[in-house]
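# nightly structure sweep
# worker-07 picked up a monomer target from the shared queue
# config: single-sequence mode, recycle default, output format = structure tokens
# input follows
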Amino acid sequence: MRKPMNAFMLWARGERRELLKLHAGVHNSSISILLGLKWNKMTENDKRPYYEEQLKLTKMHRE
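# output follows
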């Protein structure tokens, strides 16, 4: 079984689609940089649901 995604990856999978729509033709590495910058600007409260989902997935992975 694959290792579960971390909070950033959970958030980024949906956000990446939106950025690709806005920045069509931009290289994936540039999109990743934009995602990192956006994630770092988010508050802990905004990130909380993704950390909670990460904990659930990690627990399921261990079982």
